[in-house]
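Data deposition worksheet. Section B asks for the primary sequence of the deposited chain exactly as it was used as input, without tags or linkers unless they were present during the calculation. Section C holds the resulting structure in token form. Section D is free text for depositor observations; keep each observation to a single sentence. Incomplete worksheets are returned to the depositor.
Section A, Depositor: J.P.
Section B:
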Amino acid sequence: MTIREKLEIDEKETLSEFATLSINSKGRLVDEKQCDIRTVFQRDRDRIIHCKAFRRLKDKTQVFLSPEGDHYRTRLTHTLEVSQNARTIAKALRLNEELVEAIALGHDLGHTPFGHAGERALNRVCTLGFEHNEQSLRTVDVLEKDGQGLNLTFEVRDGILNHQTKSTPATLEGKVVRLADKIAYIHHDTDDAIRAGILKEEEIPADLRRILGNRPTERLDTFIHDIITNSMGKNDICMSETVGKAMLDMRKFMFEHVYQNKKAKSEEGRAEMLVTTLYEYFLEHTDEMPDEFIMLLERGEDPRRVVCDYIACMTDRFAISKYEELFIPKTWHG
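Section C:
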């Protein structure tokens, strides 16, 4: 008996009746030989951690564009916080931690440079539309490994695609990540906004602080405990009515005071212009994209989608550098 088979037996004996067992996975897009050490979800997690798209997250904006300070979140640190929150919840509910971790680590792989400003720009300028969750799935299915993709399991792919509010994941582990994503960004975006001087703790409505807590860490603790308490023994992942409503109200408050704050978003118009300009340029000059994207064109992919692929793969720093290379006279460079 292999180590993997022993782990699969352990899952059967220890995990909740509602957990997704590795041995019951619906499989991969392309069948392949099983690993003798790792379960299928462990293997997916490892593939995501070692892929190029994951490494690029460290230089992609979460909320604040080019903040002056070392402690603001990036897309990578957001991803790690989502993973940690999701694993805490999954462990308490005896769900499959490896599946939760793989989904969490992969959920934002397709995010654009400059956060949601970049996503809005591509969605507006590309007639095919653009959404980062769909791009994350495309990243693991098509773009990674020189066009071969990572060949992940159905369950991980489903969780990545359906991590946004409007969608419903097929597994409880996917539902855990969907909620963990929300509570992570509410927590750390509040923390970053306070650090940036855009928000003061006492400006948060008193009724929300009474229900959720008076500090970002207290609120995160409230969210996690509430999810665990209300999901225990159920074939669903849910929150209490009180805390669930407070979370939505807190999210609305954040949109009004942070996500749409002129100081926090002062550079977003320029970022959207930069992304739009790069898209329009490379749509007219597809031959100037790297070989891996030209290969997609040769395979019959729509140029509009491939140009989105190229720009979504860029980090903030690379996008700025490419813009300067194409549109700024060399004598103007610092």
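Section D:
The chain has a mean pLDDT of 94.
The domain at 44-259 is CATH 1.10.3210.10 (Hypothetical protein af1432).
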